[in-house]
Amino acid sequence: MITTPEHNERIAKMTFASVYPHYLAKVEKKGRTKEELHQVITWLTGFDEKQLQGLMDEKASFSDFFSKANVNPNAHLITGVICGYRIEEIENPLTKQVRYLDKLVDELAKGKKMEKILRSV
Q1: Domain of 24: which CATH number?
Q2: Contact 47/41 with Cβ under 8 angstroms?
Q3: Would you say the pTM of this structure is higher than 0.90?
Q4: Which InterPro entries is this protein grouped with (predicted)?
């Protein structure tokens, strides 16, 4: 499925703070922890707890969120389908980064081992 400019724009304007509670609920419902969620987010973005909270407090859009992130150089190893889109085929860099995050959260919720999620194996 190809992303449209409208889809990319909608994702860019969405705030991290509006999506974060859904990420947290998803992983906690499956027996994972907030700490594990933050470990995954930190691996992808380089943000520590204080920075994450600051971005949520300022209601940073995903565009702002990822423009301030130091995206992990191994993020390109995140592949597969998430939300109906094959990550490797997404051309818009920001949309791809958001889908990387979605995929990591999904893998955490599905019970994958942290070493596999963080692409360290």
Answers
A1: 1.10.8.290
A2: yes
A3: yes
A4: SP1917_dom_sf, UCP033199
